[in-house]
């Protein structure tokens, strides 16, 4: 599994509309908008489509000015599931 952090630039007047459109996509998560023109998302590379193809798709979206890969992490499925389980256990301890 590959997980990528992506910075998307737009114009301030398009940020809200673009953020809503991105949030509706099941293959990415919107994590941050700066209230101006930047949106940070993560996308998981699913086997149906490569991360590179998804980056290109994002570049072609209406109101997207630029798409930049800011981080990339590759992990096998077992490590990913273990990390999720560990994270849930830590959150339960905190609560």
Tell me about this structure.
This protein has helices at 15-23, 51-59, 77-94, and strands at 2-9, 28-33, 38-45, 66-74. By secondary structure, it is α+β, with helices and mostly antiparallel strands. Strands 2-3-1-4 form a 4-stranded antiparallel sheet, covered by helices on one side. Strand 2 and strand 3 form a beta hairpin. The chain starts with a strand and ends with a helix. The model has no long low-confidence stretch (mean pLDDT 80).
Q: Could you list some keywords that capture this structure?
A:
alpha+beta; 3 helices; 4 strands
Q: What is the gyration radius calculated from CA atoms?
A: 15 Å
Average of pLDDT? 80
Largest sheet composition: 4 strands, antiparallel
Counted up, domains total 1
Quaternary state of this entry equals single chain
Distinct helical segment count: 3
The span between the termini is: 29 Å
Can you identify the CATH superfamily? Lrp/AsnC effector binding domain/regulation of amino acid metabolism (RAM) domain
What is the third-level CATH name, the topology? Alpha-Beta Plaits
Number of strands: 4
Percentage of β-strand residues: 25-35%
* Pattern of helices and strands: EHEEHEH
Helix content: 25-40%
CATH C-level name: Alpha Beta
